[in-house]
Amino acid sequence: MDKTKVAVYAADPLTHAGISRLLRSTPGLELVTGEAAVDATVTVVVLEEVGEGQAAARAVLRQVARQVSSPVVLITPHEGKFDTDGLAGLPLGAVVYREAATETRLLAAVREAGRATSAPAVETVSAAPAHPIRSSPNKPPSPFSEREKAVLRLLADGLDTAAVAKRLMFSERTVKYIVHALTLRLKLRNRSHAVAYALRSGAI
């Protein structure tokens, strides 16, 4: 049985290395790099910046489309529903939100895109958080974004920065920035205080 050839585009070298290791170790998949990337069956593209959102997604996809014709699995930190308007004609096979991304979900998206003979209709791959929060009409909105909650849940489970980064497919620098930013915004002392605050507020 032929292997699915997968190329990876990620600006952050640690993120690129982590996804590459996952692909290399998965039966049925073959990581292709360099000039061989043009022959990829599926291309995984990672967006690093949250603020650029849809504009960044379209720009990256257009750039990749000029180099490859394979379906793209887009890993994006953009929160909320991913708006696929304006992406018609671009080789978008699936969207995976980093807050909900796991190795299993990423591999499922890659395999699904690889089964298509041409770029399929857009399919968004997402999921509710591992520990869903029950909301009520009178409950105030959470002070944490979904991205922050994903990091805090793993910290609460005892994972260190490196392990959190690997699980969420972030760079360690990104994890540190997320924790630093939320502690400053909420005037918390450190990451332990942030985890305790999130637990007491019911956010995680």
From TrEMBL:
<feature type="domain" description="HTH luxR-type">
    <location>
        <begin position="137"/>
        <end position="202"/>
    </location>
</feature>
<protein>
    <submittedName>
        <fullName>Helix-turn-helix transcriptional regulator</fullName>
    </submittedName>
</protein>
<dbReference type="Pfam" id="PF00196">
    <property type="entry name" value="GerE"/>
</dbReference>
<dbReference type="InterPro" id="IPR000792">
    <property type="entry name" value="Tscrpt_reg_LuxR_C"/>
</dbReference>
<dbReference type="GO" id="GO:0006355">
    <property type="term" value="P:regulation of DNA-templated transcription"/>
</dbReference>
<dbReference type="InterPro" id="IPR016032">
    <property type="entry name" value="Sig_transdc_resp-reg_C-effctor"/>
</dbReference>
<feature type="region of interest" description="Disordered">
    <location>
        <begin position="120"/>
        <end position="146"/>
    </location>
</feature>
<keyword id="KW-0804">Transcription</keyword>
<dbReference type="GO" id="GO:0003677">
    <property type="term" value="F:DNA binding"/>
</dbReference>
<keyword id="KW-0238">DNA-binding</keyword>
<keyword id="KW-0805">Transcription regulation</keyword>
